[in-house]
């Protein structure tokens, strides 16, 4: 079976021993979670999470805890800072003081964060340092249970002062079969708390994967709100892999929280935003700190009743911001064959005029840079609709192939898998004057 934990096979013999211990300790919460009789201030664990945690007890969630490399390490030659490095000089202040959303710089930062979440904590921490969060602290929690179609990975990146944090969910990994099965597990499931219509349902695969790491994520956020703890040692930039989550920076309390993700990670980010707004214990602790949810190429997560309930919440209506790149097929999913689904929040669509760009490229070649993917962002009053039936799936595969050949590259596509790739979102959201996310 597929698994994103590359150390799993080498630890099979250890699991056979720890599995016996896990059975003896059934009902305990793995890696920092708490039982229902935990002290005040802890988050109680419901029966479903206990059963899931029993399954994962033998191996337990895999975690990483790293500190970003310094600017001296990132730039061993030349000046520590230049006009283009870091990409944003006062990024923490921008995240703290953003007057409204969407913010173009924040959108670029979070699109970059969501794209590099397909890597590991060390790489993501490095990229966010280059973007402007110097000496950031990055924690990763990952749970994988193949038989339950669970492959859930979340990152928490906290600024040096501790005042800003970004919660980022990894999306569907291209070579992970369990991720794909989770995506198509669209059977409707009712959420475990009241939000508008009691009959409202959500995408079962997304909901299960959010819950799989929810209590570990909430414990990381709880610690991020405390002043206790110190940075983990840098140690040549290498990550620490262990069964606890490490400690957040000590300089200050968390003030601003952003949630983001690409693809299924975007769906998980949006659903976590709903949870923070509508689960009382979370709203009281973190509701005032949550600034916005930015998603990229996000599929739909709930039925029309769920979407309508979210639209009645002012924060979810105005501060859940979805970006759709050109003909990206994923925002149109699940299709109507899976039942009714609908988006909520504000949508921005990047429209690329392929035929016009192709004509410009033909007339100006080789004097000017290619224009093939140049377009503009537009606000959509009506959200992206569901794909009718399943015919769009082979159409999107054909468009992917067509984009690889010059003769067919300019043909418009109704649905495209190629447009779902995270690098297109980064390129479309990169502000004028910014070269790339590396600050070169």
What are the main properties of this structure?
disordered N terminus, two-stranded antiparallel ribbon, alpha/beta, 16% strand, 440 residues
Task: Report on the architecture of this protein.
By secondary structure, the protein is of the alpha/beta class. It has one domain (27-74, 82-429): Alpha/Beta hydrolase fold, catalytic domain (Rossmann fold, 3-Layer(aba) Sandwich). 35% of the residues lie in helices and 16% in strands. It has 15 helices and twelve strands. A hairpin with a 5-residue loop joins strand 3 and strand 4. The protein starts with 11 loop residues before the first helix and ends in an 11-residue tail after the last helix.
Instruction: Give the uncertain stretches in residue-range form.
Output: 1-43, 54-59, 228-251
- Looking at this structure, what is the CATH superfamily? Alpha/Beta hydrolase fold, catalytic domain
What share of residues is helical?
25-40%
Strand order of the largest sheet: 7-1-2-3-4-8-9-10-11-12
In short:
The chain has 440 residues and is α/β, with parallel strands linked by helices.
Helix and strand arrangement:
Layout lengths: L11 H13 L22 H10 L5 E6 L3 H4 L16 H7 L6 H13 L4 H11 L5 E9 L4 E9 L5 E6 L7 H7 L4 E3 L10 E3 H21 L15 E3 L13 E7 L1 H15 L1 H7 L3 E7 L7 H8 L2 H6 E6 L20 E6 L2 H11 L11 E5 L11 H11 L19 H8 L11
Parallel strand pairs: 4-8, 8-9, 9-10, 10-11
Antiparallel strand pairs: 1-2, 1-7, 2-3, 3-4, 5-6, 11-12
């Amino acid at each position: 079976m597929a698994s994103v934990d590359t150390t799993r096979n080498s630890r099979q013999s250890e699991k056979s021993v720890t599995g016996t211990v896990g059975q003896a300790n059934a009902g305990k919460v793995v890696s920092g979670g708490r039982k229902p009789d935990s002290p005040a201030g802890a988050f109680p664990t419901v029966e479903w999470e206990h059963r899931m945690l029993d399954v994962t007890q033998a191996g337990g969630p895999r975690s990483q805890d790293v500190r970003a490399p310094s600017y001296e390490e990132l730039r061993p030659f030349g000046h520590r800072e230049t006009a283009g490095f870091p990409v944003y000089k006062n990024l923490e202040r921008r995240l703290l003081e953003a007057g409204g959303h969407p913010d173009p710089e924040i959108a670029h930062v979070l699109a970059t964060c969501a794209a590099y979440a397909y890597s590991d904590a060390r790489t993501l921490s490095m990229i966010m340092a280059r973007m402007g969060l110097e000496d950031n602290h990055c924690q990763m929690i990952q749970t994988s249970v193949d038989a339950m179609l669970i492959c859930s990975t979340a990152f928490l990146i906290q600024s040096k002062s501790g005042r800003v944090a970004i919660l980022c969910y990894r999306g569907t990994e291209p070579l992970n079969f369990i991720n794909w099965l989770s995506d198509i597990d669209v059977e409707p499931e009712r959420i475990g708390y009241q939000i508008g219509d009691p009959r409202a349902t959500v995408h079962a695969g997304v909901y299960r994967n959010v819950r799989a790491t929810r209590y570990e994520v909430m414990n990381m956020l709880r610690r991020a709100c405390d002043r206790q703890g110190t940075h983990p040692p840098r140690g040549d930039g290498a990550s620490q892999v262990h069964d606890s989550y490490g400690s957040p920076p000590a300089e200050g309390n968390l003030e601003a929280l952003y949630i983001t993700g690409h693809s299924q990670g975007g769906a998980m980010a949006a659903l976590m935003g709903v949870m923070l707004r509508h689960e009382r214990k979370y709203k009281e602790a973190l509701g005032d700190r949550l600034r916005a949810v930015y998603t990229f190429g996000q599929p739909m997560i709930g039925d029309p009743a769920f979407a309508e309930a979210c639209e009645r919440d002012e924060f979810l209506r105005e501060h859940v911001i979805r970006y759709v790149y050109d003909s990206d097929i994923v925002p149109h999913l699940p299709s109507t064959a899976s039942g009714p689904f609908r988006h909520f929040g504000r949508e921005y669509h990047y429209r690329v005029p392929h035929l016009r760009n192709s004509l410009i490229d033909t007339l100006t070649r080789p004097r000017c840079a290619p224009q093939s993917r140049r377009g503009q962002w537009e606000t959509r009053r009506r959200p992206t609709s569901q794909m009718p039936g399943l015919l769009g799936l082979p159409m999107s595969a054909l468009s992917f192939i067509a984009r690889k050949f010059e003769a067919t590259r300019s043909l418009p596509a109704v649905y495209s898998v190629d447009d779902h790739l995270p690098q297109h979102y980064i390129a479309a959201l990169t502000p004028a004057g910014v070269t790339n996310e590396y600050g070169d």
